[in-house]
Structures are given as structure tokens and as C-alpha cells.
Write a structure and sequence with these properties.
about 280 residues, alpha+beta, four-stranded antiparallel beta sheet, 8 helices, about 20% strand
Amino acid sequence: MPEGPEIRKAADKIERAVKAKVTDKVFFAFEHLKPYESTLTGQKVRQVETRGKALLIHFDNELSIYSHNQLYGVWMVRNAHNYPATKRQLRLAIHNAQKSALLYSASDIEVLTPEQIPNHPFLSKLGPDVLNPTLRPDHILELLTAKQHQRRQFTTLYLDQHFLAGIGNYLRSEILYTARLHPRLRPIDCSDAQLEALAEASTAIPYQSYRYNGITNDLDLANQLKAQGQKRSQYRHWVFSRAGQPCRVCTTPIVKDFASSRRFYYCPVCQPAQG
């Protein structure tokens, strides 16, 4: 499933294609949304917003299209009315004179009024978006030290969208490695300095991933490995998907483990089990 940085990158492409342009056609695959096709045609897109792994396309008439890609949804931006050759099912299309923004395979699509957005079953329960420019490490530190979070393992806490929105498997592993914290520790097990490092990593790693196309490894090291001929999958991360390979810092083999059937990766030396 795409994580916050990937959803924001998709939103950027959509925004470049449709923002401030008059729509000449809007298509919904689902019958209950068909009445909104005419309502949104002829309107301008005001903003494309992300909230974690969800996306909101805001129109000038105050209506917004909500979508969540879930496992299989994918956005494509094409020249106007130029559809790709694909077996995926088109669920939503926003066309203007120059471009088309096409959403395939997703099933979670709604049209919302401004009053409905704060009460939406998914959006209303989201924690802060890790890519929100107003989110600072001290905000995350407050969350980490809150009573309801203190005794939750990081493996669980860092996939909870009610805690921080936009983090998934790879960001969880990379954030915890950068902070040098074992995934099965809890905030209550950590020192103030460790929690401060975690709060810093929780903003820095998602932003780096967004800015540098998914790379969460040290950027200089990633460039060196790329220059040596390594593939992107080999130099992209510190620990994620590197089970059995040497830690980039201490050379200890990276460990793969599972929590609630979700995989995570860590270095047992750089991330000791005791806080």
C-alpha cells in the first residue's frame, strides 16, 4: 500500500494537471455518485489535499472528492481523454482541456461537503499528517508521551493512523532505525533523549522520502551505492527489505520480524532490545 510520501507525490501530479483549470467532464464509475458528474463539471479544482493515505480534491463550489487508494488504487495523469492500455477498472476521471486525472481500481470514493469532512468516519479519526508542514517534532513528542500511547509497542503505534497519518511498513522501520530504537520498545521504555530522536526522525524521514523519491537511506551513501551500479532497491533504505544483509553502520545482519502479520526490519545491535 502506498504511504504518505507516495500519496503526496501523486497529489502533486494531479494538482499540476487540474488545479485552477475548468473541468470539462467528470466521470464516476459508481451509480450513487453519478449525479455529481454534472455538478462538478464546469468547476475549477481549488486544491488537492492529502491526509495520510487519503486524498481530497477540493472544487470551487465547496464540494470535495474523497478517495483512498487502499491496496490496489492508482492515479494516472494523461493528456486529455487519452486512456492507458490497462485491465484496471476506471473509477474516477477528472478532465479539462489539457489533462485527465484518472483513478483506477480504488473503491473508496465519496463526494463530501465542507460540513461532512470533519465528521467523515476515516478522516475524523486521523492523527496529524506526517507531511503537514506545520507538524513539528515537539508535537510528536507530546503524542509519544501522552498517557494513551506510553505503553504501546512502536510496532503497533507507528502503524496506527490515529497516532500519525501516512506511515506504513517501510517508514515505520526506517524511522525506528534512524532513531536507533528497537521496534518492540514502548515510549515508556525510552529516555527523553531517545524520544526526542524519534520525534525528529518521525518528521525528517517521511519528508526525505517525499522529496527524494522514496529514498530513506543516507543520501550521500545512496548516491555512492548508485554510482557503484547498485539498483534503487539496493540503495533505497537503511533496513527495510534488507533481511540478512549487513547493517550499513555496524555490518550486523538485518533481522526481519512480524507484528500482526505486518513485516518490519531492524538491526539488533544498532537497535538494542533494551531502551
